[in-house]
Specification:
The chain is an alpha/beta fold. It contains 10 helices and 5 strands. It has a 5-stranded parallel beta sheet with strand order 2-3-1-4-5, sandwiched between helices. The structure holds cytidine-5'-monophosphate (C5P).
Length: 223
């Protein structure tokens, strides 16, 4: 009998907007030599395509068509466009991502990456439903969160760093609205998996959050 090929480990990192999960995911992947996928970037690419076509993100048919036409090369190419990271695109992404057919169209790209990360060592994927839907058998699941006011303050700092004028109350209101939409989706809502390690970074520096996350991941990989 041939032994089954061991599966490469998957680390799932979920959490709300501006929780710091993307930064953590990138640092953990670089430290372990794993490949990183930002799943939100796929939803953002769909949203930006719809917006660029002059269509509102609420147009379900346009969102489905854009998701079905998105191939990995095109999604990757769109990441260098600064508009992909804007709050307008983020909000539009949270609208298109509530459409079941949009989620279905993006499923294979995420599951293929999880099963066959390009470097062959392991995958770190961040998003909203990685530990619950994309990789429910991930070896380590983190749910990274922080108080909305603190996330809004961090996001405001990022925007100001980019020279974008923004008002704290507006950033906070957008953040709360996106949280509400993401956690109340009929399918794949943002929720911590029951076996996820919940990391509240409200009172942590980026380095403290990284140390706590890495130590959890290393323990899970050693089990
Ligand atoms: O993480 P990011 O802010 O880039 O994600 C943009 C939006 O895409 C989120 O607000 C969420 O609505 C959606 N998303 C999702 N599932 C994921 C990743 C992102 O629904 N796995």
């Amino acid at each position: 009998m041939t032994a089954a090929t061991p599966r490469t480990p998957v680390i799932a990192i979920d959490g709300p907007a501006a929780s710091g999960k993307g930064t953590l995911a990138r640092r953990i992947a670089a430290t372990l030599g794993f490949d990183h996928m930002d799943s939100g970037a796929l939803y953002r690419a769909v949203a930006l395509t719809v917006l660029r076509n002059g269509t509102p993100p609420e147009d379900t048919a346009a969102a489905i068509a854009a998701a079905r036409a998105l191939d990995p090369a095109r999604a990757a190419a769109m990441q260098s466009d600064p508009a992909i990271r804007s709050d307008t695109t983020g909000t539009a992404a949270s609208v298109v991502s509530a459409v079941p057919e949009v989620r279905a169209a993006l499923l294979d790209a995420q599951r293929n990456f999880a099963a066959h990360p390009p470097g062959g060592r392991g995958a770190v994927i961040d998003g909203r439903d990685i530990g619950t839907v994309i990789s429910p058998d991930a070896v380590a699941k983190l749910f990274v969160t922080a108080d909305p006011e603190i996330r809004a303050r961090r996001r405001l700092g990022e925007l100001q760093g980019q020279g974008v004028a923004a008002i704290f109350d507006d950033v906070l209101a957008d953040m709360k609205e996106r949280d509400r939409r993401d956690s109340q989706k009929a399918i794949s809502p943002m929720v911590a998996a029951p076996d996820a390690f919940v990391l509240d970074t409200s009172r942590m520096s980026a380095d403290e959050a990284f140390a706590a996350a890495l130590s959890f991941v290393r323990r899970a990989l050693d089990r």
